[in-house]
What does this fold into?
Amino acid sequence: MLAWIKSHLLVVISTVVVLVVLPVGYVFSSKWNESIKTKRAAEVKADLDKLNQKVAYAIPTLDPTEPAVTQNDVPNAMRTEFFRKHREAVLKQAEGVVTRAVEFNQRAHRPLVEGLFPDAKGEALQTLPFELADRLIGLEGRPSVFQELLDRSRAGGPRAADKLAPILMDVETREREAILGQNANRPLTADENKRIVEKVVARRLGEYQARARELAFFASIDAFQVDTARGLSLLRVKPKMLPNLDECFAWQADYWLFSDVIAALAAANSDSGGRPLTVDQGAVKRLVRVLIKDSPYVKVERAARNPGEETTEAPAAASPDAEIKPDFAKSITGRWAGPSNGMYDIRRVTVDLIVDSAMIPRLFDAFAQTNFMTITDIDLAELDPWAELERGYFYGDSPVVKATIEVETVWLRSWMKPWFPKGIRAQLGIPDDKPAEGENAAPTEGEKKNEP
It folds into this structure.
């Protein structure tokens, strides 16, 4: 056996190798195959998990009282396209709503003097503030812009006494002559005197009625007022010192607010087709007073942290895109203004009116249709129409009352901000605008020195 093995050693070794390699190879191949199967199974499971992974689809809503449309599901091309299409439609609609809201709030408001805001310089800074003052006060031959507001709305005062007196005297003279004839020296009887008085009174009433039919409502420039106790001022005389830009903007903003109130009153005295009504037909008979109660554009002194320390710290800048949640503890509308609100400012006015008691709802609608204005309170009081008539105010035959209304107005910063002077921006906590891409920043002092 050994001799044979020795003579056939190569065959024996090959046989042994074959016998050992086959089971060992089988064992190793089995383990390798299991490893490959495990790896491939993990890869397949991962791919399957990806296929079954759910995606959160959502279509936003423009109405905060309604929930957004959401769905968690496995993505597919049709579902993705459906949500993409509707989401883009809602966002486009939202952009349209924002644009319309800004246009509605701005109306036709522009600065009374072009080039003054936000940063008039040089000669313009020395002359344009006085030009604004002239527009607000009025010049000989050119009325104040407040009077222009009333004139455009067909508002005015009763028949002026200096115009009424000659008319009544003429009536009295003609009646006296008709009664006395050629015998002008004899005294009038009691009945004749009564007849003349009746004629004069009738003509006086007729003049009052005629004047009421010439106007949309009674009002005078003295009706425009501001609450001076809160630091506000209404320009009545030309300033001796050059007003700064912050003061000018505060006057400009007040004018915008006054103009919105007058526009709302004119709308209340218009029919469904926009045709102006007269005093005896409309809801508003007379504007007694419109008082601006506050202004975010007037500088307020903040308390210092330590005695003797001046406080120049401005409120923190608020994002104009941040959500403004209603706070009904601050207002019945839920709207509020403050350092955390970078979207809009709130201004409040008190308006004293003589109104037709049956047409008060029309007054509410008119304010809402004119701008973002809400009547938050109304107080009614009795009125003696005969006492008003003695002063020349003819209101028609409908019962009238005196109404004091509180109006809350909203002013979007998006259209006002380009006109805010630097001081107003600091007051409201609005950071300076960054230079547009590609636009050079302001040169430094060193760069200015090197300029040719």
In short: The chain has a mean pLDDT of 85. The longest helix spans residues 9-52. The longest strand covers residues 344-356.
